[in-house]
């Protein structure tokens, strides 16, 4: 596991305070960024793949990137929301089992209010994720974030670290697999998503034959090494399509795909949309 904090290059995409009611009922949301909530008033629920999480005032909550979830709200619900995105090649939050809920000290709300002031213009104008997840506003917000004064960017990053530290303090390392050889392979894959897949090289790294590696990998991960590599590359592609204007062909090439048609097929199989249609929908949305 790579615990290097140099892999933590977080940017704020959205931040603000909201009071919602029955309109905060959205299903099967899955975003390429991490969400943090601090509840100030009322009650709601988040339905996660493995549980229903009650949301209460005075608590902070986190939903990691690419976690499918739904919102349930039947009355007044007030909260601060923070959506963050890691610029580094590998998001080290993936390597930790984070607690969904933590009780926070009073100063944590002060930090969030301070972060909100340091990030003007990044509040949402829509509560429906289908708008703000696939909107040119995401690209604009990234540019706004990077163009702020240096002191604001430094202080903002410090506050984000502080918020994440609250969750990491109670986190446990993820145990993906029992076999250390596969652990080494997973670590290598996650830091080399831009390279063309080389199963022979992975076999050498794990000191296994190619066929033996595939058998053990499939037993531990319930998919082949190539399927896993493509899964992680498609997650990266989704994030880049949301946050960049890079041509699709270039994104495919930079993720190790020499054949754009093959990239398109894998992307559609994963998301239900071709990269072109995904981007077209993204650019046609308005806040």
UniProtKB/TrEMBL annotation:
According to the record, the segments passing through the membrane are none
* MF (Gene Ontology): DNA-binding transcription factor activity; sequence-specific DNA binding
Does the record bear Transcription in its keywords? yes
The UniProt keyword set, sorted, is:
DNA-binding, Transcription, Transcription regulation
The coiled-coil regions, if any, are: none
Return any one Pfam family short name. HTH_18
**Keyword set includes DNA-binding:** yes
**What is the protein name for this chain?**
Transcriptional regulator, AraC family
According to its UniProt entry, this protein's organism is Paraprevotella xylaniphila YIT 11841
**Organism classification:** Bacteria, Pseudomonadati, Bacteroidota, Bacteroidia, Bacteroidales
